[in-house]
Amino acid sequence: MAGSSSSKPPGCRVRRRRCAVLAAAALAPVLVADAFVAPGAPRALRRQAPLPGRTALHGWSLFHWGADEEVDEKGRARFLSFADGEGEEAALPRESLRSLLECTDSFCLTKHWLAESTLDKIWKQYAAEDGIGIKEFGRLAHDGLLLEGKLEEYENAFSGVDEGDGLISRETLGKLFAGLGKHFSAEELDQIVDEADVGHDGIDFADFLGLARTHLELAEVVRYLETTPKRVQASDEAADGMLGHITTVHSEAELDAIVASGKDVVVKLAFTWCRPCKAFLPRYEKYAKVYKDTTFLKIVGNENESCKHYAKEVLRARISPMFAVYSEGKLLTTWNGANNQRFMDKMEEFLPSARQLIQEREAAIAADPTLAPAVPTR
Description:
Elements: H1 12-27, H2 56-59, H3 73-82, H4 94-102, H5 116-126, H6 134-142, H7 151-159, H8 170-179, H9 186-196, H10 205-214, H11 218-226, H12 236-240, E1 246-248, H13 252-259, E2 265-270, H14 275-290, E3 295-300, H15 305-314, E4 322-327, E5 330-336, H16 340-350, H17 352-355, H18 358-367
Parallel strand pairs: 1-3, 2-3
Antiparallel strand pairs: 2-4, 4-5
Helix pairs in contact: 7-11, 8-15
């Protein structure tokens, strides 16, 4: 009979392999929490989680079954350079998958940096019975798991956030996430750092590549760094050049660099919709001339994600305008409101540079009544 012929139509092996994986998935369902989804994955992979008690396969497709992704010639060549076998029989064993994921077209590092737990998740999610074939590779590539970009692009992104010693601290990583609009609790950040620091020797360039796969997108980091002032320690000359007028800062990192100079600093936190903030600005400018040995800064709390983080997480602002004073690199106190008397009292109570200019302040008030304390209303 024709139906008993041993010949099989093209693609039969792929269908058998796919059915085997589906059968295994039905016996051991994959939970949403266990599925590996890259930062740049298509929106279809980021739908809401299934209802309690339902697996990912029942709720929505993690695997794009029935919609194989086409692999172009460049991708096919990349796959075959790591795969065992030839043609349609070529497949990636587990260790070859590691090499594929840890390299781009242009470079590989000399040390392994992909965490075993991450490799396990990807392998379980994509591998068929005989490894990862070209079809599985297509889905893996489509889901954003391949490391793309040139070495210098990653190096430039890393050097923009490292501490100058080839390592990224937990604090710096938290600020980077905040600048990108990704806010994590202290416990979540601790877990990310622990998982990223493969060798437990600090987050180095290799670990940064791991973060680029799981939590960061290279293009997103590059765009953020382009709009963020370079983290440089403010020199005494630069700090002195800020005296006598207001300096507007545009990120938490820029503000931190000035505070780190150790000089006496006052910060005015404003928001674009805050009318009292705008009304107090002319007086703030005049006070900068009166307290001429204090650095006066202004930051707009809704300008960008970094400024939002400073307002919400550092100052915990609820009322604006809000003021904060620093000395010797430490935050001393904060207060709210466009009130002349309160502003002068706090400045002279906490900052030596302001306290030594009381006579000059009294003379300025005599010459300009707008600087005087408001007349109490009854």
